[in-house]
Design a protein that fits this description.
By secondary structure, this protein is of the alpha/beta class. It has one domain: Rossmann fold, CATH 3.40.50. It contains six helices and seven strands; from the N terminus they run E-H-E-H-E-H-E-H-E-E-H-H-E. Helix 1 packs across helix 5.
């Protein structure tokens, strides 16, 4: 299937936390959206590989995602060598997405920064005729969503209309994220705390406020963004 958008994360739940509202918004607009998890979350403190795969599939269904796939790049020590590049190049050439949404260059979890470098490298190499066997293809743009560490956004997407859809997707990750009223006998982690859940909401409200929305998801672009119509950038849309 040809995809319009492919969101890539190091671990199951990274994409949903960082840009779930944006993915749901794009899917509702009729775009073909996919999610690729670079690992199976096998080194996580909570949950099994099988449980996390089931959760990821449920979350993708909530968001309206058309395709979901997993690679085996090594959770807890994410590999970024030629073998992993070739695996990701194969996915990019098969789905041929116009837009890639992925991790930022650096973050609290070392796997996230490694994933950024892998995504950036594979997105470029996928367009080289001499790399690999299938037909070359290079995505038009690669943007990064916010995870733990903040950055100055290049743009913010108003996800007010799909915020509840995002929260429904996050509710699928019962092994990883705090769910009000749920009790699990597993080791405590930062993301499984009530404080982390509150921070997810608070951050979205903060960035939404900056663009006059209830909730917003920030993104970073390595290159400047071209604007064909500056009038369309007026707050609240063209007047």
């Amino acid at each position: 299937m040809k995809l319009d958008v492919l969101a890539i994360g190091s671990h199951p739940d990274d994409v949903e936390l960082g840009c779930g509202g944006t993915l749901a918004l794009l899917a509702q607009r009729g775009l073909k959206v996919g999610i690729l998890h670079l690992t199976r979350g096998e080194a996580g403190t909570r949950g099994t590989v099988e449980e996390r795969r089931t959760e990821a599939q449920a979350a993708a269904t909530s968001l309206g995602v058309a395709e979901i796939e997993f690679l085996d790049c090594g959770d807890g020590a994410l590999r970024t060598g030629p073998e992993e590049e070739d695996a990701l190049i194969g996915v990019l050439r098969r789905f041929r997405p116009d837009l890639i949404l992925g991790p930022t260059p650096s973050d609290r979890h070392p796997d996230h920064g490694r994933a950024h470098r892998l995504v950036a490298a594979a997105s470029y190499y996928a367009g080289l005729k001499g790399r690999g066997e299938s037909a070359p293809y290079r995505p038009a743009a690669v943007f990064s969503y916010m995870q733990h560490d903040p950055f100055e956004p290049s743009f913010i997407v108003d996800v007010s209309a799909t915020w509840e859809v995002k929260m429904e997707a996050l509710a699928a990750y019962a092994s990883q994220l705090h769910q009000p009223g749920s009790r699990r006998d597993e080791p405590p982690t930062k993301v499984a705390s009530p404080e982390f859940r509150a921070a997810v909401v608070g951050r979205a409200q903060h960035y939404g406020l900056l663009v006059g929305a209830a909730y917003g998801e920030p993104f970073w672009s390595r290159l400047p963004l071209a604007v064909a119509d500056p009038w369309a950038l007026l707050p609240g849309g063209p007047r």
